[in-house]
UniProtKB/TrEMBL annotation:
Single Gene Ontology MF annotation: NADH dehydrogenase activity
Subcellular location, principal: membrane
Protein name listed in UniProt: NADH-quinone oxidoreductase subunit H
Entry similarity comment: Belongs to the complex I subunit 1 family.
Membrane topology reported for the UniProt record: Multi-pass membrane protein
NCBIfam families: PRK06076.1-2, PRK06076.1-4
Keywords for the protein's UniProt record, in alphabetical order: Cell membrane, Membrane, NAD, Quinone, Translocase, Transmembrane, Transmembrane helix, Ubiquinone
Region (Disordered): 397-433
Catalysed reaction, written as an equation: a quinone + NADH + 5 H(+)(in) = a quinol + NAD(+) + 4 H(+)(out)
A GO term from the CC aspect: plasma membrane
EC nos: 7.1.1.-
Function, as annotated: NDH-1 shuttles electrons from NADH, via FMN and iron-sulfur (Fe-S) centers, to quinones in the respiratory chain. The immediate electron acceptor for the enzyme in this species is believed to be ubiquinone. Couples the redox reaction to proton translocation (for every two electrons transferred, four hydrogen ions are translocated across the cytoplasmic membrane), and thus conserves the redox energy in a proton gradient. This subunit may bind ubiquinone.
Length: 433
């Protein structure tokens, strides 16, 4: 067992705060997220405009800082329109279901170790649980109900298709995301977020378990429905997706809040589970007081902003993928690779913990590697054969269309125009109208 610093909180440190301290921490978390939404929208616009050589928001306030506040005020004061065919109760409830679980999911994120808050020693984390990571996954799954209900209650085919896409997308990527956490549970020995941060005292899990980290990064975009995986909002084929029937009013503002809150939650979980949480990066960690007091809040915030900037960078760089590509990546690539990686991590962990079973662990690791290579070669061979068959089919169809212009397509006039359709056209004398 690694030695844990006295300042590191454990599960035993939670549940002992006075009620007023808990309320203060909840208010601080709420203010952080609300201000994060305002500045996050502005920051995303500015960063994308800088990447695309544009100015971005520059009218409302200095550097356009008040643009997000102006947009929120405008949406809050606009007329609230209800389409005549919607289910009014679910239509109103859906945006709320999208926002509330996102707030709750962020409550398990640790910002710092034990700090002095108005004379009370308390962990700078709202709550921690023995199954905190599972709680986060559950809140992410519950929020999808809001998207599905928004599409279903709108009674619109485009909105319904967007809601169904979101349901199918979250099922595939929630499984892959959950599997990417299993390796962390094996090494940390806990599902508590504060203790997972403590387990990264020596090495961050993003370095130790890099395949899990890379898989989570991909799943993060699918879970938060961000470009290139924002298929529930595919404007090109669904007009506006699940939010088609929501006008630019307060309901639409809640939907935008839900999207940004899920992005913040994905960034916070990435920092907590893979990037050392509030721990200072090297070489700042060599300073003895780097991970004590209120300094860890700064390290957490810097990591959080960097992860969010990466999400914005991907949005500015990559186009939206097709829906079949999205589902194929989740089911055919991420989940099988995750399962093979978990077996390999379990074998290596067995070697470290139980040295007496070294040969068994090596045997399991060898079987996993050989099985993964065999599956990959088989998949590559089958995929290559299908491509060749498809190419041969396309070539055959092209030859058929070339030999018979009217076969399987629009009528194409033959090159011999005077004899088109068996009618011989006579030349028209010059000068005749």
């Amino acid at each position: 067992m690694k030695h844990v610093l006295a300042a590191d909180p454990t599960l035993a440190d939670f549940g002992k705060d006075p009620l007023w301290i808990t309320i203060i921490k909840a208010v601080m978390l709420f203010v952080f997220l609300m201000l994060g939404i305002l500045f996050g929208v502005w920051y995303e616009r500015k960063l994308i405009s800088w990447m695309q050589n544009r100015r971005g928001p520059n009218r409302a306030g200095k550097f356009g800082l008040l643009q997000s506040a102006a947009d929120g005020l405008k949406m809050g004061l606009k007329e609230d329109i209800f389409p005549t065919t919607v289910d009014r109760v679910l239509y109103l409830l859906a945006p709320v279901i999208m926002v509330v679980p996102a707030f709750l999911a962020f409550s398990i994120v640790p910002f710092a170790p034990m700090v002095n808050l108005f004379g009370v020693q308390t962990p700078l984390q709202l709550v921690d649980l023995p199954v905190a990571v599972l709680f986060m996954l559950a809140m992410g799954a519950v929020s999808v109900y809001g998207v599905v209900l928004a599409g279903w209650s709108s009674r619109s085919p485009y909105a319904l298709l967007g809601g169904l896409r979101s349901a199918a997308q979250v099922v595939s990527y929630e499984i892959a995301m959950g599997l990417s956490f299993v390796a962390i549970f094996l090494f940390a020995g806990t599902l508590s977020t504060s203790e997972i941060v403590a387990a990264q005292e020596q090495t961050w899990f993003a370095v130790l378990l890099i395949p899990s980290f890379l898989i989570y990064v991909v799943c993060m975009f699918g879970e938060a429905a961000r470009i290139p995986f924002d298929l529930p909002e595919g404007e090109g084929e669904l007009v506006g997706g699940f939010q088609t029937e929501y006008s630019s009013s307060l309901k639409f503002a809640l939907i935008m809040m839900g999207e940004y809150l899920h992005t913040f939650t994905a960034s916070g979980i990435a920092v907590t589970l893979f990037l050392g949480g509030w721990r200072a990066p090297f070489p700042i960690s060599l300073w003895e007081g780097a991970n004590a007091g209120w300094w860890p809040v700064l390290w957490f915030f810097i990591k959080f902003v960097l992860v969010f900037s990466f999400i914005v960078w991907v949005r500015a760089s990559l186009p939206r993928v097709r829906y079949d590509q999205l589902m194929s990546l989740g089911w055919k690539v991420l989940i099988p690779v995750n399962l093979a990686w978990i077996l390999l991590v379990a074998a290596v962990r067995n070697l470290v913990v139980n040295e007496g079973d070294r040969m068994i662990g090596l045997g399991i690791a060898g079987v996993v590697v050989i099985g993964a290579l065999a599956i990959w070669l088989r998949f590559d061979t089958v995929n290559q054969r299908r491509k060749e068959e498809r190419k041969a089919q396309v070539d055959a169809e092209f030859e058929e269309l070339s030999s018979e212009p009217t076969a399987g397509g629009f009528p194409v006039p033959p090159l011999d125009l005077p004899h088109y359709h068996g009618v011989q056209h006579k030349e028209i004398p010059s000068g005749t109208n």
